[in-house]
Write a structure and sequence with these properties.
Layout (H helix, E strand, L loop, with lengths): L5 E5 L4 H17 L2 E8 L7 H6 L2 H26 L6 E7 L2 H12 L3 E6 L4 H7 L2 H8 L3 E6 L4
Parallel strand pairs: 1-2, 1-4, 2-3, 4-5
Helix pairs in contact: 4-6
């Protein structure tokens, strides 16, 4: 029988991630697993060096981190209330390249399962943007469940 003790749910707050959250929620409920809600803030890219002078990167990261932290805490509150008080949940905001940070995090935490949405990029978009989910699937030392949003 499969035993899941730690499930990581990675979110970028997209519609795909919302669907993945529902599945992660169901799995943690079924297995009584701890859920780790994770978001990775990618490095800031400025359109020009002039813009970089006017914008403090540190201030930007602090603001972004606060907004994301609040969003994850709202997700945590929703999760806990739907579980009827189940509090085996943790929120983690990471900074860096998403796939690398997720892979490092799941290794450190000795995670059993990663649940994440996909964007379904194809063609040139996939070539230029890559796929965080694809990189995690290929390199993770645990099972990865990806969820693709299918419009009704």
């Amino acid at each position: 029988m499969v035993q899941l003790k730690k499930i990581v749910f990675c979110t970028d707050f997209s519609e795909n991630a919302n669907e993945a959250f529902e599945l992660a929620f169901d799995l943690t409920q079924k297995y009584g697993a701890q859920i780790l809600l994770v978001h990775v803030v990618p490095p800031l890219v400025f359109p020009s060096p002039v813009m970089e002078e006017f914008i403090s990167e540190q201030a930007n990261y602090q603001f972004i981190d606060q907004v994301i932290q609040r969003s994850l805490e709202q997700m945590e509150t929703t999760y806990v209330s739907r579980m009827g008080g189940y509090e085996n949940v943790r929120v983690q905001v990471l900074s860096g390249h998403p796939a690398s940070e997720i892979l490092q995090f799941i290794e450190q935490e000795k995670v059993d399962l990663v649940v994440m949405g996909t964007h379904g990029f194809t063609g040139l978009a996939h070539f230029f943007l890559g796929s965080t989910a694809e990189k995690v699937v290929r390199r993770a030392g645990c099972s990865v469940l990806t969820v693709h949003h299918s419009p009704a």
